[in-house]
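Researcher: Sequence recovery benchmark, item below. Answer with residues only.
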């Protein structure tokens, strides 16, 4: 999730996202709240994990941070923005509701 800075709206950046299979998400013009969840997520990762670790290399940092996000942050840590569920449980609940037949 980004702001509308020229580096993020450029064709070069968009092409790189397409190649990597990344779906871009951009905030609305003039809305500081659009980026709040993304910024809170990054802050939490830094405070709860990154600043408590020592990494020997950037590669080690990437692997350990990605593993922490996958195993802890997404699967077990409860989030206020997700009705106090983990992101995985929240998404699963959403998909289950989508698949249930609607009452006529």
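Model:
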């Amino acid at each position: 999730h980004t702001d509308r800075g020229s580096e993020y709206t450029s064709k070069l950046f968009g092409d790189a996202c397409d190649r990597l299979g990344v779906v871009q998400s951009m905030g609305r013009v003039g809305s500081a709240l659009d980026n709040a969840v993304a910024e809170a997520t990054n802050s939490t990762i830094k405070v709860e994990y990154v600043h408590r670790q020592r990494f020997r290399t950037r590669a080690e940092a990437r692997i350990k941070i990605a593993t922490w996000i996958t195993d802890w942050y997404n699967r077990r840590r409860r989030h206020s923005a997700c009705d106090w569920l983990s992101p995985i449980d929240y998404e699963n609940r959403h998909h289950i509701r989508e698949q249930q037949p609607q009452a006529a």
